[in-house]
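assembly run, all chains below
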Amino acid sequence: KNEVEQSPQNLTAQEGEFITINCSYSVGISALHWLQQHPGGGIVSLFMLSSGKKKHGRLIATINIQEKHSSLHITASHPRDSAVYICAVAGGNTDKLIFGTGTRLQVFP
Amino acid sequence: KAGVTQTPRYLIKTRGQQVTLSCSPISGHRSVSWYQQTPGQGLQFLFEYFSETQRNKGNFPGRFSGRQFSNSRSEMNVSTLELGDSALYLCASSLTGTKSYNEQFFGPGTRLTVL
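ok done. output:
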Protein backbone atom coordinates (compact mmCIF):
# COMPACT_ATOMS: atom_id res chain seq x y z
CA LYS A 1 0.00 0.00 0.00
CA ASN A 2 1.35 3.44 -0.93
CA GLU A 3 2.04 5.82 1.91
CA VAL A 4 0.15 8.57 0.06
CA GLU A 5 -3.04 7.73 -1.80
CA GLN A 6 -4.94 10.13 -4.01
CA SER A 7 -8.42 9.85 -5.45
CA PRO A 8 -9.70 9.99 -8.03
CA GLN A 9 -6.88 9.22 -10.46
CA ASN A 10 -8.71 10.95 -13.30
CA LEU A 11 -11.40 13.57 -13.20
CA THR A 12 -13.33 15.34 -15.91
CA ALA A 13 -15.58 18.28 -15.26
CA GLN A 14 -17.60 20.93 -17.05
CA GLU A 15 -16.55 24.50 -16.64
CA GLY A 16 -18.08 25.97 -13.50
CA GLU A 17 -18.31 22.72 -11.55
CA PHE A 18 -17.04 22.32 -7.97
CA ILE A 19 -14.16 19.84 -7.81
CA THR A 20 -12.73 17.86 -4.93
CA ILE A 21 -9.52 15.86 -4.93
CA ASN A 22 -8.68 13.71 -1.93
CA CYS A 23 -5.40 12.67 -0.36
CA SER A 24 -4.92 10.12 2.41
CA TYR A 25 -1.60 9.30 4.03
CA SER A 26 -0.39 6.72 6.48
CA VAL A 27 2.72 8.34 8.01
CA GLY A 28 3.16 11.06 10.57
CA ILE A 29 3.80 14.33 8.85
CA SER A 30 5.12 17.80 9.52
CA ALA A 31 3.45 19.30 6.45
CA LEU A 32 1.37 18.40 3.42
CA HIS A 33 1.84 20.01 0.02
CA TRP A 34 -0.55 20.35 -2.89
CA LEU A 35 1.22 20.78 -6.22
CA GLN A 36 -0.01 21.50 -9.73
CA GLN A 37 1.75 20.18 -12.80
CA HIS A 38 0.88 21.36 -16.29
CA PRO A 39 1.77 19.54 -19.51
CA GLY A 40 5.43 20.18 -20.17
CA GLY A 41 6.35 19.35 -16.62
CA GLY A 42 6.49 22.59 -14.65
CA ILE A 43 5.33 22.18 -11.06
CA VAL A 44 3.79 24.93 -9.01
CA SER A 45 3.28 24.71 -5.28
CA LEU A 46 -0.34 25.56 -4.49
CA PHE A 47 -0.49 25.06 -0.75
CA MET A 48 1.51 23.87 2.19
CA LEU A 49 -0.59 22.84 5.19
CA SER A 50 0.07 21.58 8.65
CA SER A 51 -3.41 22.13 10.04
CA GLY A 52 -6.81 23.57 9.25
CA LYS A 53 -7.65 25.22 5.98
CA LYS A 54 -6.10 27.59 3.44
CA LYS A 55 -7.71 29.49 0.60
CA HIS A 56 -6.19 31.12 -2.45
CA GLY A 57 -8.57 32.49 -5.02
CA ARG A 58 -10.80 29.64 -6.20
CA LEU A 59 -8.66 27.02 -4.49
CA ILE A 60 -9.24 25.71 -0.97
CA ALA A 61 -7.16 23.11 0.83
CA THR A 62 -8.09 21.42 4.07
CA ILE A 63 -6.33 18.93 6.26
CA ASN A 64 -7.50 16.70 9.11
CA ILE A 65 -4.42 15.56 11.00
CA GLN A 66 -6.32 13.05 13.16
CA GLU A 67 -7.87 11.35 10.13
CA LYS A 68 -4.68 11.73 8.02
CA HIS A 69 -6.66 13.20 5.17
CA SER A 70 -6.53 16.31 3.03
CA SER A 71 -8.77 17.67 0.31
CA LEU A 72 -8.19 20.17 -2.46
CA HIS A 73 -11.28 21.96 -3.70
CA ILE A 74 -11.62 24.05 -6.83
CA THR A 75 -14.67 26.26 -6.98
CA ALA A 76 -16.07 27.43 -10.34
CA SER A 77 -13.61 25.29 -12.31
CA HIS A 78 -12.15 26.63 -15.54
CA PRO A 79 -10.41 24.94 -18.48
CA ARG A 80 -7.13 26.51 -17.38
CA ASP A 81 -7.38 24.42 -14.20
CA SER A 82 -6.71 21.35 -16.35
CA ALA A 83 -3.54 19.84 -14.94
CA VAL A 84 -2.25 17.05 -12.73
CA TYR A 85 -2.68 17.75 -9.02
CA ILE A 86 -0.21 16.05 -6.72
CA CYS A 87 -0.34 15.61 -2.98
CA ALA A 88 2.96 15.25 -1.15
CA VAL A 89 3.72 14.81 2.51
CA ALA A 90 6.82 15.81 4.43
CA GLY A 91 7.47 13.79 7.52
CA GLY A 92 7.48 10.22 8.62
CA ASN A 93 10.75 9.00 10.06
CA THR A 94 12.96 10.69 7.52
CA ASP A 95 11.20 13.92 6.68
CA LYS A 96 11.53 13.31 2.93
CA LEU A 97 8.76 14.37 0.58
CA ILE A 98 6.58 11.41 -0.38
CA PHE A 99 4.29 11.91 -3.35
CA GLY A 100 0.90 10.64 -4.32
CA THR A 101 0.40 9.40 -7.86
CA GLY A 102 -1.50 12.49 -8.88
CA THR A 103 -5.00 13.30 -10.10
CA ARG A 104 -5.39 14.25 -13.74
CA LEU A 105 -8.09 16.91 -14.07
CA GLN A 106 -9.64 17.96 -17.36
CA VAL A 107 -12.14 20.80 -17.38
CA PHE A 108 -14.14 21.22 -20.55
CA PRO A 109 -15.78 24.47 -21.66
CA LYS B 1 13.21 37.44 -7.67
CA ALA B 2 14.37 35.03 -10.33
CA GLY B 3 12.90 31.56 -10.03
CA VAL B 4 14.67 28.23 -9.79
CA THR B 5 16.66 27.53 -12.93
CA GLN B 6 17.84 24.20 -14.23
CA THR B 7 20.29 23.46 -16.98
CA PRO B 8 20.21 21.92 -19.42
CA ARG B 9 16.50 21.64 -20.15
CA TYR B 10 16.88 18.65 -22.45
CA LEU B 11 19.58 16.07 -22.70
CA ILE B 12 20.09 12.95 -24.77
CA LYS B 13 22.70 10.44 -23.68
CA THR B 14 23.54 6.82 -24.44
CA ARG B 15 23.73 3.91 -22.03
CA GLY B 16 26.93 3.82 -20.02
CA GLN B 17 27.58 7.55 -20.22
CA GLN B 18 27.40 9.89 -17.27
CA VAL B 19 25.48 13.14 -16.92
CA THR B 20 25.60 16.21 -14.70
CA LEU B 21 22.54 18.37 -14.14
CA SER B 22 22.60 21.79 -12.55
CA CYS B 23 20.14 23.67 -10.37
CA SER B 24 20.32 27.28 -9.22
CA PRO B 25 17.93 28.00 -6.36
CA ILE B 26 16.08 31.19 -5.63
CA SER B 27 18.38 33.75 -4.08
CA GLY B 28 18.45 33.29 -0.31
CA HIS B 29 17.18 29.71 -0.39
CA ARG B 30 19.57 27.29 1.27
CA SER B 31 17.84 23.99 0.63
CA VAL B 32 17.82 22.21 -2.71
CA SER B 33 15.98 18.95 -3.28
CA TRP B 34 16.13 16.74 -6.34
CA TYR B 35 13.33 14.55 -7.69
CA GLN B 36 12.93 12.05 -10.47
CA GLN B 37 9.65 11.77 -12.34
CA THR B 38 8.84 8.83 -14.60
CA PRO B 39 5.51 7.66 -16.03
CA GLY B 40 5.78 4.39 -14.14
CA GLN B 41 7.00 5.51 -10.72
CA GLY B 42 5.72 9.07 -10.58
CA LEU B 43 7.65 11.58 -8.53
CA GLN B 44 10.36 10.20 -6.28
CA PHE B 45 12.70 11.97 -3.91
CA LEU B 46 16.37 11.68 -4.77
CA PHE B 47 18.18 13.79 -2.18
CA GLU B 48 18.18 17.07 -0.34
CA TYR B 49 21.08 19.39 0.31
CA PHE B 50 21.22 22.11 2.89
CA SER B 51 24.26 24.32 3.48
CA GLU B 52 26.44 22.04 1.35
CA THR B 53 25.48 18.92 3.31
CA GLN B 54 23.28 16.08 2.16
CA ARG B 55 20.49 16.04 4.69
CA ASN B 56 18.24 13.36 3.23
CA LYS B 57 18.57 10.65 0.62
CA GLY B 58 15.99 8.63 -1.27
CA ASN B 59 16.14 4.99 -2.30
CA PHE B 60 18.29 5.29 -5.38
CA PRO B 61 21.49 3.42 -6.27
CA GLY B 62 24.89 4.93 -5.69
CA ARG B 63 25.09 5.89 -9.37
CA PHE B 64 23.01 8.90 -8.38
CA SER B 65 24.98 11.50 -6.49
CA GLY B 66 24.84 15.18 -5.85
CA ARG B 67 26.53 18.11 -4.23
CA GLN B 68 25.83 21.66 -3.21
CA PHE B 69 28.16 24.59 -3.46
CA SER B 70 28.66 27.47 -1.06
CA ASN B 71 26.37 29.68 -3.16
CA SER B 72 23.61 27.02 -2.74
CA ARG B 73 23.77 25.96 -6.38
CA SER B 74 23.49 22.22 -6.70
CA GLU B 75 24.48 19.56 -9.16
CA MET B 76 23.40 15.99 -9.51
CA ASN B 77 25.34 13.35 -11.34
CA VAL B 78 24.23 10.03 -12.74
CA SER B 79 26.97 7.65 -13.78
CA THR B 80 26.76 4.60 -16.00
CA LEU B 81 23.39 5.62 -17.40
CA GLU B 82 20.70 2.99 -17.91
CA LEU B 83 17.62 3.15 -20.10
CA GLY B 84 15.48 3.37 -16.98
CA ASP B 85 17.15 6.62 -15.98
CA SER B 86 15.18 8.40 -18.70
CA ALA B 87 13.03 10.81 -16.75
CA LEU B 88 12.23 14.37 -15.89
CA TYR B 89 14.60 15.52 -13.16
CA LEU B 90 13.25 18.34 -11.05
CA CYS B 91 14.90 20.39 -8.41
CA ALA B 92 13.16 22.51 -5.83
CA SER B 93 14.45 25.12 -3.45
CA SER B 94 13.17 26.38 -0.17
CA LEU B 95 14.41 28.57 2.62
CA THR B 96 15.28 25.79 5.03
CA GLY B 97 13.93 22.58 3.55
CA THR B 98 10.91 20.36 3.89
CA LYS B 99 11.27 19.96 7.64
CA SER B 100 10.13 23.45 8.40
CA TYR B 101 7.07 25.34 7.31
CA ASN B 102 8.48 26.53 4.01
CA GLU B 103 7.09 26.27 0.52
CA GLN B 104 9.04 24.42 -2.14
CA PHE B 105 9.70 26.23 -5.42
CA PHE B 106 10.27 23.95 -8.38
CA GLY B 107 12.44 24.48 -11.40
CA PRO B 108 11.27 23.65 -14.94
CA GLY B 109 13.12 20.33 -14.93
CA THR B 110 15.67 18.63 -17.12
CA ARG B 111 14.29 15.98 -19.41
CA LEU B 112 16.90 13.24 -19.81
CA THR B 113 16.57 10.64 -22.51
CA VAL B 114 18.90 7.65 -22.43
CA LEU B 115 19.23 5.75 -25.71
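Chain A touches chain B at residues 30-31, 33, 35, 41-45, 48, 50, 86, 88, 90, 94-102 (CB under 8 Å).

The mean pLDDT of chain A is 92.

not gonna interpret more than that til we talk
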